[in-house]
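Build the 3D complex.
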Amino acid sequence: MDSLIVLATLDSLELVNSFITRATAQVGLDDHAAWQVQLAVDEAVTNVIQHGYAERSPGTIDLSWQVVEDQLEIRLRDHGQYFDPQSIPAPDVTSPLEERQPGGLGFFLMQKLMDDLHFEHNPREGNLLVMLKHIPRPVEGVSLFSLSGRLDAVASQQALERPRAAIAGGIRRVLLDLSEVSFMSSSGLRALLLLRKDLLAHGGELRLCGLREHVQEVFALTGFTQVFAIHLSREDALAAFGQR
Amino acid sequence: MDITHTRYNRVDLLTLSGRLDAASAPQFKQQVDGLFDQGRYRLVLDLAKLEYIASPGLRVLIEARKRARDLKLTDLEGGDVRIVNLPPRIKEVFDLTGFTSLFEIFDDNTAAVGSF
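Done.
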């Protein structure tokens, strides 16, 4: 998290932009989402500069950001005149040129570009605008393999053929869904260990999910519950990639 | 933001580059109004090098086209503001705000200038 205080003048827009660019890079938003946040904040700050404060006596704008769960939260506080943008009608973006109102697009864009925004006002602390943008989890690039049946000495060789080939081909994030595996022998376990070792040697990440009770027991008895990253569901496992 | 002006016989071409936001919109508006004030109402805006646009820039665009179209150059022809080259980020803003259907948009400078 970080914060910035600027004078509410147009000269400050550049400072605000670099502040937001640093924030979006730090939380790992991609270029497109970073641009969306930058434009939305630019619109919000421009609103305060042009409508919040009287032109001759600009006040200040406090900006801060933090990550709240899986969202980037940007807070913008000012002490200008209170204005509720929700009180003006949304522009009709389908109307022809003759009927088109030139204003109102700033708030419209803020709504389109952010996942959520809300306004608060109180006489002591001034106006607060909170803007939220979802930070996508890095699930890209995870290869999922569903194993089934008995994982013993013979069957595990065949069952792990595809994941092994994928790793040899450059895949680095592997999720094995074991929910259809009915039996696991110590040889099957050893085969999984070898796969894990191979993947880790390449800087990769292996996760398992959906273990049935009997299979879970084999992991627990042999102490391998601690060695493998084991998750209840695919979703949990996918969300955990890249979070080490 | 930088604006380059190319004057053709009947048409003026403004090439915009950089950021068109609240800080630079007045400069852009001044240039457009300056042309209008000289009776130059056939305008092509080349946005190929425009990196960024915010609502104050959109406002100048819409007001410019309204003003140009209100002027009758002859009984048959009014002025106009036409656009050539929309980079992806600018196009996205145009799509969100319905500007794509508010303007005649070309992808070739010669065609845009020749359209008048």
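The mean pLDDT of chain A is 90.
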